Amino acid sequence: MLGRILIVDDDPDMRLVLREHLEPERFEVLDAGNGAEMRVLIEQKEVDLVILDVQLPDEDGLNLAKVLREKTDAGIIMLSGKGTSVDMVVGLEVGADDYVAKPFKARELLARIRSVLRRTKQARGARPGTGGTVVRFDGWRFDSAFQRLTDPQGKYSVLTAGESRLLQTLIDNLGQPVARKTLHREALGYDMQSSSRNIDVLVGRLRRKLDSGDGKENLIKSVRGIGYEFTGAIEQG
Asked: What is the model's pTM?
């Protein structure tokens, strides 16, 4: 089994289609027709990824994404029949790892699923001494092994896998701008389409978590025509 995937969609035909695509790829599939069923399942079983429809009969999918982010470290892929840039931005803002518009090609969805699973599993499996590192900068502490960011006052927030990989990539390129397409590939695991705003949304989420409320300039600077640059001062030792 490559992973346990929970499908949350009120359309039984869509759940069946997804199951028929996923099970031959050696994924275990659970499904729920609404938010209430989803809540029961995530309490009963650990899942690796949730494919979550935006429009559900009993509860908005965006609200459910927030619930999932609070209760599990599973990857989240939002599905929507609208597919507008606004919907995509909102989906990513609430903590989803990716967003796919209906109708979609099975091959594309499978690629997105594998990308999100790869990132979340790497984050889950990381432990100090096995690739995870602690970096201190400007009073902040970033523990990549546990995706934890602690501010100068000692308050911490847990980063998503994408946010953690984004911050690590920026830190690894300290003092130099990193192209948006490079950040997109490193953080989200696949090449950026020309019109995509996913990486900008992810940067916005990370910037808010790096805001200590003291009025200081954010540590992630926009570089016009290129991408973004990390400006923090790394503390040695």
From this structure: 0.64
